[in-house]
């Protein structure tokens, strides 16, 4: 597969994204399956984030497209899903967790600057705002080696709130393994219809308002979704 470079990012503004119309498709949330080249690891549950569930679930079409993307990869690689649908309670917990990380990493920034940086990595938590993960249309993913189960080098840790996490960061370092690995992940996901959040190499969207924003669609097809843990036990 010929890997093209990752384009210079277009900054997102949550105020624009929340104004996009939603024509709800009513697609179901389903558990992400574990196949040979598509697997899940609910990372927030494993790291004891408050209210996180022990499974990755997403809209039906999102899962189908993830499998299509995985099938485009070289045979020794697969896609690992770390998070997908996320409740508002988990979103709030992550805002606090990553906000604390930012305060530790960037103590020299003002409170306003820290909040601006936080908005690059975590969507707002408000009663009148539908965050991308709440729709079941967002997935946080990485690539893994099917023979060793090791994650590929992406050049920045998952949820790392630094510029190294920006998807295009390694484009001026084409010999760095992370440059080619990011290009590969970006390419297969783009080919099957996902958009990428430019500040996070791991975050991809389909069907929600963030996807509509980056694909210049007139509307989104996924609004807020609900996964009832009790019903699925």
UniProtKB/TrEMBL annotation:
<keyword id="KW-0224">Dipeptidase</keyword>
<keyword id="KW-0961">Cell wall biogenesis/degradation</keyword>
<keyword id="KW-0482">Metalloprotease</keyword>
<keyword id="KW-0862">Zinc</keyword>
<feature type="site" description="Transition state stabilizer">
    <location>
        <position position="86"/>
    </location>
</feature>
<feature type="binding site">
    <location>
        <position position="140"/>
    </location>
    <ligand>
        <name>Zn(2+)</name>
    </ligand>
</feature>
<comment type="function">
    <text>Catalyzes hydrolysis of the D-alanyl-D-alanine dipeptide.</text>
</comment>
<protein>
    <recommendedName>
        <fullName>D-alanyl-D-alanine dipeptidase</fullName>
        <ecNumber>3.4.13.22</ecNumber>
    </recommendedName>
</protein>
<comment type="similarity">
    <text>Belongs to the peptidase M15D family.</text>
</comment>
<dbReference type="InterPro" id="IPR009045">
    <property type="entry name" value="Zn_M74/Hedgehog-like"/>
</dbReference>
<dbReference type="Pfam" id="PF01427">
    <property type="entry name" value="Peptidase_M15"/>
</dbReference>
<dbReference type="InterPro" id="IPR000755">
    <property type="entry name" value="A_A_dipeptidase"/>
</dbReference>
<keyword id="KW-0645">Protease</keyword>
<feature type="binding site">
    <location>
        <position position="133"/>
    </location>
    <ligand>
        <name>Zn(2+)</name>
    </ligand>
</feature>
<feature type="active site" description="Proton donor/acceptor">
    <location>
        <position position="200"/>
    </location>
</feature>
<keyword id="KW-0479">Metal-binding</keyword>
<feature type="binding site">
    <location>
        <position position="203"/>
    </location>
    <ligand>
        <name>Zn(2+)</name>
    </ligand>
</feature>
<keyword id="KW-0378">Hydrolase</keyword>
């Amino acid at each position: 597969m010929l890997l093209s470079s990752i384009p210079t990012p277009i900054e997102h503004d949550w105020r624009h994204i929340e104004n996009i119309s939603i024509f709800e498709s009513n697609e179901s949330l389903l558990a992400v399956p574990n196949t040979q080249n598509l697997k899940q690891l609910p990372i927030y549950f494993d790291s004891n984030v408050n209210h996180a569930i022990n499974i990755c679930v997403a809209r039906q079409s999102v899962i189908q497209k993830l499998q299509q993307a995985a099938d485009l990869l070289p045979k020794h690689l697969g896609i690992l899903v770390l998070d997908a649908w996320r409740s508002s309670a988990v979103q709030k917990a992550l805002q606090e967790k990553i906000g604390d990380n930012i305060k530790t990493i960037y103590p020299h920034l003002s409170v306003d600057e820290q909040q601006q940086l936080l908005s690059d990595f975590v969507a707002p938590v408000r009663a009148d705002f539908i965050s991308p993960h709440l729709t079941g249309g967002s997935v946080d993913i990485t690539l893994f080696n099917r023979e060793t189960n090791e994650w590929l080098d992406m050049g920045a840790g998952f949820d790392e709130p630094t510029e190294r996490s920006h998807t295009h960061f390694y484009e001026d370092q084409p010999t760095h393994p992370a440059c080619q690995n990011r290009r590969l992940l970006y390419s297969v996901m783009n080919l099957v219809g996902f958009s990428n959040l430019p500040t996070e190499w791991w975050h991809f969207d389909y069907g929600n308002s963030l996807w509509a924003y980056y694909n210049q669609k007139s509307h989104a097809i996924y609004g807020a979704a609900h996964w009832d843990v009790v019903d699925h036990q």
